[in-house]
Specification:
Elements lengths: L2 H11 L3 H4 L15 E7 L19 H8 L2 E3 L2 E2 L5 H10 L3 H4 L15 H7 L3 E6 L17 E3 L1 H6 L3 H12 L4 H4 L19 H15 L4 E6 L31 H5 L1 H14 L4 H31 L6 E7 L4 E2 L5 E2 L5 H4 E2 L1 E4 L5 E3 L3 E2 L3 H9 L13 H5 L9 E5 L3 E5 L4 E5 L8 E3 L18 H16 L19 H8 L18
Parallel strand pairs: 1-6, 1-7, 2-12, 3-13, 4-5, 4-6
Antiparallel strand pairs: 2-11, 3-10, 7-11, 8-9, 14-15, 15-16, 16-17
Helix pairs in contact: 10-13
Length: 517
């Protein structure tokens, strides 16, 4: 923060010491200025790509590795949902997807639910959101979602000249006809986007974020939300040879294990293969290579953003959160893509650099815990009905004894509860074959489903009750209370709650509507 802005905020915050958590004026102490907040988001980022986590593909992400060394690393950060829109809406509102009625890819962000932007703007922050937010802004130009400044893929493309437009359209067309190309979005050919690096979308996002940060006179909260490494794995030509598929280490897993381990997951996967086609082992390696090239490109731009923040004198006064909306399969369980209830997808990187604390935290947490955390650390009044628990105790300590299981949901299909030692998955209907229980500490790869094991009956019962309490405490805003989990019918109410999805009227109409890509 610039000196002038710092001085101004000392004056503003001097009377608000109790709110900000600083010493009051009565003891002669002056309040410290609030930190800026920079939230950097990735899309579909697997923990396997980062040395601070799995580290299987370590060496591709020097900037994120350096950030992790300066941050608290949450090793088991659980996404609210295993696919984009519900996860992002949950992070942005601090509420569960089923509670706010945002459970599908085409879900709309409810107008009446406060966002991080709303909350921090009301608290005196200048707010901005650049990049992929999944709120279909072009369809709703009258909404600012709580942010003073907005910028997304439509704004980036508006700056193309004729040649850039032609190159982008030619590349984009490759991925818009999936029915003709099977798994075309996996970019098996490793095709880069033929634009100069400074004209790529990720570069544009960094430029816009830095311009906003340097111009803000108030403390700011800014999202820099990258598309990478979401399929079809964008990267510029210079990154096309960054990863050699023939040298990649792939998990030696067979999806046939799913037939006995999780029949519901297996059935969904087999239907996808029937529709899109099988992939050979060599094809999977080529897919992972394109994915990792996109990860390397993401890392280069995160590095550029953080270096420029430092050079501008803003790094010391800026709290940085790096997260991904969920993870991604890179051959684990013989799978690729996302949406399934294994830890490779429902857990994702979460780094918090506050300038004071570092180290690894192994206690499971939830991505929606970030909202109350930022409120607590900034002295901003949180909105009512936040579902998460602040991570502030875990920033300062290795454990938080009051923290319960971490949850993730695929509304209408399954819910997952994660503790240090176990993971329980419950399906909307037991007969569909989604129920699973893993002794995660002893079986970190989640290969042995012990849901019917008598030795873990007590664990299963305890986690079942935790899931039931979770749903009872988070009723949907759009459903009358008398219809939500009334009475006790031996688990039937819980299964019915898992089965609930939002009304179709809360989703964006598909035909003819612009998307956020």
């Amino acid at each position: 923060m610039r000196a002038g802005a710092r001085g101004a905020w000392l004056l503003v915050l001097g009377f608000g010491a109790l709110v900000s958590g600083c010493s009051g004026a009565g003891d002669g102490a002056s309040a410290a200025p609030r930190q800026n907040i920079l939230i950097i988001a990735a899309d579909d980022l697997s923990s396997a790509a980062l040395a601070a986590y799995d580290g299987r593909y370590a060496g591709l992400t020097p900037a994120l590795d350096a950030l992790a060394a300066e941050s608290v690393v949450f090793r088991h950060a659980v996404a609210s949902s295993p696919f984009c829109t519900p996860s992002r809406h949950s992070f942005l509102t601090g509420r569960w997807p089923h509670s706010i009625g945002a459970t599908q890819v085409d879900s709309l962000l409810p107008a009446g639910v406060p966002t991080l932007g709303d909350t921090f703007r009301a608290g005196g922050y200048r707010t901005a959101a650049f990049g992929k937010m999944h709120w279909y802004r072009k369809s709703f130009p009258e909404r600012d979602f709580g942010f003073d400044v907005l910028g997304d893929v439509h704004d980036w493309r508006a700056g193309f000249d004729a040649e850039e437009r032609a190159r982008y359209d030619a590349w984009h067309t490759l991925w818009s006809t999936r029915e003709e190309g099977g798994w075309s979005q996996l970019n098996l050919e490793g095709i880069p986007l033929e634009l100069d690096e400074e004209r790529q979308y990720a570069s544009w996002l960094v430029d816009r974020t830095l311009a906003f940060a340097q111009e803000a006179d108030e403390p700011f909260l800014a999202f820099c939300s990258f598309n990478e490494p979401h399929a079809p794995f964008s990267f510029p030509p210079a990154f096309a040879q960054r990863v050699d598929p023939e040298t990649l280490e792939l998990p030696d897993d067979d999806p046939e294990l799913l037939r006995s381990q999780a029949p519901g997951v297996y059935g969904i996967w087999k239907r996808a293969l029937e529709q899109e086609g099988e992939l050979s082992r060599a094809d999977l390696a080529r897919h992972v290579a394109s994915y990792l090239r996109s990860v390397a490109w993401l890392d280069s731009q995160v590095g550029r953003l953080l270096a420029a923040l430092d050079q501008a004198g803003l790094a010391e006064d800026t709290l940085v959160v790096f997260w991904s909306d969920h993870g991604y399969f890179l051959g684990e369980h013989g799978l690729w893509s996302k949406n399934q209830p294994f830890q490779e997808v429902v857990e994702a990187p979460l780094l918090v650099r506050d300038g004071r604390h570092t180290g690894q935290r192994t206690q499971p947490v939830q991505m929606l815990d970030v909202f109350p955390t930022l409120c607590e650390l900034s002295g901003v009044e949180p909105p009512a009905r936040l579902a998460g628990r602040s991570l502030a105790p875990l920033l300062a300590s290795a454990s938080d004894p009051g923290r319960g299981p971490a949850f993730s949901e695929f509304a209408g299909v399954w819910v997952r509860a994660r503790t240090r030692d176990h993971s329980l998955v419950l399906g909307a209907r037991p007969t569909l074959g989604f129920d699973q229980l893993y002794a995660t500490r002893d079986d970190p790869g989640e290969r042995t489903n012990r849901v019917a094991d008598p030795a873990l009956a007590d664990v299963r019962g305890e986690l079942f009750r935790a899931v039931e309490a979770f749903y009872r405490g988070t009723p949907p805003d759009w459903m009358p209370g008398e219809l939500w989990m009334q009475g006790d019918t031996a688990g039937a109410q819980l299964r019915a709650a898992i089965a609930v999805t939002e009304p179709a009227s809360t989703r964006r109409p598909r035909p003819g509507q612009a998307t956020d890509d």
